[in-house]
Design goal:
About 65% of the residues lie in helices and about 5% in strands. It has helices at about 5-25, 50-60, 70-80, 85-90, 95-110, 110-120, 130-145, 165-175, 185-195, 200-210, 220-235, 260-270, 280-295, 310-325, 335-345, 350-370, 380-405; strands at about 240-250, 250-255. Helix 3 runs parallel beside helix 7, helix 8 (about 165-175) crosses helix 9 and helix 12 (about 260-270) packs parallel to helix 14. The longest helix has 30 residues, at about 380-405. The protein is elongated, with a radius of gyration of 26 Å.
């Protein structure tokens, strides 16, 4: 079972890794700036970017209101966002800036995924932190440039069709900062949740609607969660995320979609007293927290062998929400343990096996009783035996499906 202690321990380990990463970057940048890269555990990889910096701002933001050291770190991270071109120009050679870094900065400052991540992180930053509003203005400009008609957002300012994942990121950023959102954008996301063809993107769309859409129908959201979880259940037991690839100015790019974390977050909001306390969801969150606290840390192996700063920020957010909402007024400990235990037992293969053999025993018993009766009437036997045979076949089929579920290889993403 999840406990406050387990979740707090995971966050403490995240803070430790962040501090080490920031110390490494501090020596590479001007005094006023600070940034973070894609990885938390790769000191020799001196790449810095908006994903890693946004994730670091997000994880440090709440402490910045009470801790002056953290407030200074967050201010320096935001300075990097607002003055990235000048900072990077001062740290690399003119040739490298001209041929590589400068173009990348110009492209990324209008990238909806990166800028929406920055804006979402800024929503947790106190207004007293320097340059917060200036950085948020840059985010708003990037999102405004990517608006699509009649609804949604493209992946950048070059136009094109609306992208459902980019739209969900933009809407989350706007809603978290209490900025106005077009009704058409909400309808676009609701429609995609209902009829979208990518279940991994639907996981994130569901989380955004569950968290911010004031007009959403809770029962419809719960139904969507059940449908998506049922479709992705075979892959939920392992650790996997999805890639969303897109093209900008003839260059390929991608954003990770940690859909399992998003499903846990949505479940915690939509089913706080039932499914969230069940074995499957509790086990998933417990695995994440314990892996984060381990010496090796948590990673999606298919995405690389290093610890992703952005993934850690997603886990951090999930832990924060669980601590603030689900554990704020927790059920009595014995009730939670009972719900979890019952869920684990009823979903086990042992129950399926016992049910199968019980039905076989009933069918055999009915046949023996009929053979021992004085008149072997087929009319008496047929309805009962036929019903029991059908139940046996149904139980056998369910058992085979359950076995296939547990033995199916994980899809490579």
């Amino acid at each position: 079972m999840l406990t406050r202690q387990i979740l707090r321990a995971a966050q403490s380990e995240m803070k430790r890794r962040i501090e080490l990463r920031l110390r490494q970057e501090a020596g590479r940048l001007p005094d006023r700036a600070l940034a973070s890269g894609q990885y938390l555990d790769h000191p020799d990889y001196d790449q810095r970017g908006l994903y890693g910096t946004a994730a670091t701002i997000h994880m440090l933001a709440r402490r910045a209101t009470a801790d002056p050291v953290t407030q200074e770190q967050v201010a320096k991270l935001i300075y990097y966002v607002a003055n990235r071109s000048q900072v990077e120009r001062a740290t690399v050679s003119p040739a490298v800036y001209r041929d590589l870094v400068g173009r990348r900065i110009r492209l990324q400052k209008t990238d909806v995924f990166r800028m929406a991540d920055i804006g979402y992180a800024l929503s947790y930053v106190s207004p007293v932190v320097a340059l917060r509003f200036e950085a948020l203005d840059l985010v708003r400009a990037a999102l405004d440039g990517a608006r699509a008609d009649p609804a949604g957002y493209a992946v950048g300012d070059e136009g094109g069709e609306p992208d459902p994942l980019a739209t969900a990121h933009a809407v989350r950023c706007m809603a978290a900062n209490n900025l106005p959102i077009r009704p058409e954008d909400w309808r676009y996301l609701r429609e995609y949740l209902k009829n979208g063809d990518n279940p991994f993107i639907r996981c994130f769309v569901l989380l955004v609607l569950t968290t911010y859409d004031l007009d959403a129908d809770r029962k419809q959201l719960q139904g969507a969660w059940k449908e998506i979880f049922s479709a992705l259940a075979p892959a939920f037991s392992g650790h996997s995320e999805a890639n969303h690839e897109y093209t900008r100015y003839r260059e390929q790019d991608y954003v990770r979609v940690p859909w399992q974390i998003y499903l846990v977050q949505s479940c915690a909001k939509l089913f706080p007293l039932t499914r969230f306390n069940g074995f499957v969801i509790q086990r998933k969150m417990l695995e994440l927290a314990e892996a984060v606290s381990s010496p090796a840390g948590f990673k999606y192996e298919a995405s690389g062998r290093h610890l992703s700063t952005r993934t850690y920020a997603c886990i951090w957010q999930a832990i924060d929400e669980i601590l603030d909402f689900n554990f704020r007024q927790p059920l009595p400990h014995v009730v939670v343990r009972t719900v979890s235990a019952l869920s684990r037992v009823l979903s086990s293969r042992l129950i399926a096996v016992l049910t199968y053999f019980l039905l076989v025993a009933i069918a055999v018993g009915s046949l023996v009783e009929w053979l021992n009766s004085p008149n072997h009437s087929v009319g008496e036997l047929a309805p009962n035996l036929l019903a029991e045979v059908l139940l046996v076949l149904a139980a056998r089929f369910e058992f085979q499906v359950r076995r296939a579920k547990y033995h199916r290889p994980m899809p490579h993403r």
